[in-house]
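[retry 2/3] Pseudouridine synthase: previous attempt timed out, resubmitting with same input.
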Amino acid sequence: MENSVELQESEDQELYEHLKIIVDKGQSLLRIDKFLMIRVENASRNRIQNAIDAGNVLVNKKQIKASYKVKPFDEISIVLPHPPRDTEVYPEDIPIEIIYEDSDLLLVNKTAGMVVHPGFNNYTGTLVNALAFHFEKLPQLPGNDGRPGLVHRIDKDTSGLLLISKNEKSITLLARQFFDHSITRKYIALVWGDIENDGTVTGYIGRSLKDRRIMDIYDTEEKGKWSVTHYKVLERLGYVTLISCELETGRTHQIRAHMQHIGHPLFNDAMYGGDKILKGTTFNKYKQFVENCFELLPRQALHAQSLGFIHPTTKEYVHFESPLPPDFKAALTKWRNYIVTS
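[retry 2/3] Pseudouridine synthase: success.
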């Protein structure tokens, strides 16, 4: 529901994206068009070039040409038109694992690597394409075009439970529970480092000023939305820790950004720095061991394990769980064996 509320903001916000970037102190001289293609999410050369030609890219509050070379500490302001959305969903015969279904809703156990809904560069092969094939008609939230049935989302490379609505009544009632943060959601994560105690991470979460693809935690509400994650230690495995995370809010990349913020990035989370050896020894044998773990679990170690909510028709609390997938279990087993034998 939070995402659909965002989509219902002003038409100006819907059509244009306002960005501000402060160039890092270590940035080497680089043409601004090339620099922006690296730093701006979903940015094509034409999109950047058109913005520069239209005078919509300012450096230190002055218009520039595409040949301008960015320098450390330059302040870049950009107004970019959003790429046009294809809101039509094309049915595709893609297998999905349904763990529960009734006349109002279904729960899908999403595999890692599957995009949830169509979007820029991902108009086919998504979970929503699969749902459109398996179900004749799913309801639509206002402002949620192209995402029938969805009341929440999980990242492409996160596995686990996703709740889908099958009619207008249920999507409204379920979306309200997500908006009110009354749905209970628990994730299992493997993170770098030895976490000593259970804890809570809070802060205002918003787009990073350095990289639009990732989220940062800020201390003022002007820069983001309030977010809360409670975590508990499940198992200590030397240089990594298995934890459970309960979401009080549901923001984009919340667990990934929160755990990086406290110095414990998710294992093999490339976007948040977890795909490097952050803890451990300098021995080549250990380095090879970690690389082997990365191969077993070639994505961030995050699994949406459980969902609990009030059923829209029965009004009773229901709870569902999903076991860890094979890739996650294989990496865990390898870490457990390493701890025993080292």
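[retry 2/3] Pseudouridine synthase: The radius of gyration is 22 Å.
[retry 2/3] clearing retry counter.
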